[in-house]
Specification:
single chain; alpha/beta; six-stranded parallel sheet; three-stranded antiparallel sheet; 11 helices; globular; binds nicotinamide-adenine-dinucleotide; binds (2S)-2-hydroxybutanedioic acid
Length: 346
């Protein structure tokens, strides 16, 4: 029986509900696509996050199996499973943060844009549910192609009249995680000491690491710059090829998603100085943020706070190599954004 993980009809759950409602501090988080390659380790890691009091795991397959498994972990969050479209609204009601890793992954030879036809519709449907049931939630979009699925989410929210650009964030954290790792390797440092801003978007040349702004300050030869830029831009493909048809990055992605979700939750609870890279609307802060680029969406360093994106930082001084990269990135990004927008408007 799956009674013990259903929302209703279980005394053990009723007590858990009391605990969740009874002033237990923490946030209510839903993961959509929780039974997938990313979804499972992401659900496990969010169950370990001390800021989370309620964790809703939604998928169209195996949601109850994953929920039963994770619910046995002796950490604070109360876990509930939701299976299939008919339970989407229950999964979303009351959520503070919704993380979306639902959708198909790449196989060797595919681009992220090749996933558009399937994933666009999945993200659209899930965002319609969010608009209806938790319009104030912060939304973290992982499903590819991120450069198009974030604009899709924005259009769905606009249609529903609830769009708040500060609350919608495309997750590009894996690019930063990879950049920190690869740069640390070249410099012979511990990756935890390295911070690399990665801006633009989340596909091929739209992934633009700003190696001139690495912390701690350092310099690279032209050869190192080209090697690092290419490795960071092709990190996803490196994993897709190594998995040889069995999917794309899941474990490093779950790690990156939790690092990013944790930053969003720290922002929500009012911590100062929470800054991460994310793919956000250039209108998130009105005219101020449109100074980053002329594109309607762009990944850059943002400060996270009680309302989501509180500040978007300018790109800062770029060297010639980065300026050329930025022009290439903007060209491709513009088309991907437009594709997402017209998918919903058509
Ligand atoms: P997966 O196939 O292992 O898992 C996807 C899950 O989504 C499955 O459990 C599936 O049942 C579920 N799903 C499908 N349709 C759904 C719907 N309508 N509602 C709810 N759930 C649904 O794939 P994965 O490896 O976990 O990757 C998921 C997505 O994340 C892919 O699009 C992939 O390209 C993307 N991704 C993004 C990044 C990033 O950096 N943003 C990194 C890695 C992967
Ligand atoms: C990644 O960067 O690993 C993801 O976007 C998955 C992919 O298709 O490469």
């Amino acid at each position: 029986s799956t009674d013990h993980i259903q929302v209703e009809g279980s005394s053990s759950l009723w007590r858990a509900d009391c605990r969740a409602k009874g002033g237990s501090p923490g946030f209510r988080v839903a993961i959509l696509g929780a039974a997938g390659g990313i979804g499972q380790p992401l659900s496990m890691l969010m169950k370990m996050n001390p800021f989370v009091s309620v964790l809703h795991l939604y998928d169209v397959v195996n949601a109850h199996g994953v929920t039963a498994d994770i619910s046995h972990m002796d950490t604070g969050a109360v876990v509930r499973g939701f299976l299939g479209q008919s339970q989407l609204e229950d999964a979303l009601t009351g959520m503070d943060l919704v993380i979306i890793p639902a959708g198909v992954p790449r196989k060797p030879g595919m681009t992220r844009d090749d996933l558009f036809n399937i994933n666009a519709g999945i993200v659209k449907t899930l965002c319609e549910g969010i608009a209806k049931c938790c319009p104030k939630a912060i939304v973290n979009v992982i499903s590819n192609p991120v450069n198009s699925t974030v604009p899709i989410a924005a259009e769905v929210f606009k249609k529903a009249g609830i769009y708040d650009p500060k609350r919608l964030l495309g997750v590009t954290m894996l690019d930063v995680v990879r950049a920190n790792t690869f740069v640390a390797e070249v410099l012979g440092l511990d990756p935890r000491e390295v911070i690399v801003p990665v801006v633009g978007g989340h596909a091929g040349v739209t992934i633009l690491p700003l190696l001139s702004q690495v912390k701690p300050p350092c310099s690279f030869t032209q050869e190192e710059t080209e090697y690092l830029t290419s490795r960071i831009q092709n990190g996803g493909t490196e994993v897709v090829e190594a998995k040889a048809g069995a999917g794309s990055a899941t474990l490093s992605m779950a790690y990156a998603a939790v690092k990013f979700a944790d930053a969003c939750l720290r922002g929500l609870r009012g911590d100062a100085g929470v800054v991460e890279c994310a793919f956000v609307s250039s209108q998130a802060l009105g005219l101020l943020s449109s100074q980053v680029t002329e594109l309607p969406f762009f990944a850059s360093r943002v400060r996270l706070g009680r309302n989501g994106v509180e500040e978007i930082y300018p790109l800062g001084p770029l060297n010639e190599y980065e300026r050329v990269g930025l022009e290439k990135a903007k060209k491709e990004l513009g088309g991907s954004i437009e594709k997402g927008v017209s998918f919903v408007r058509k």
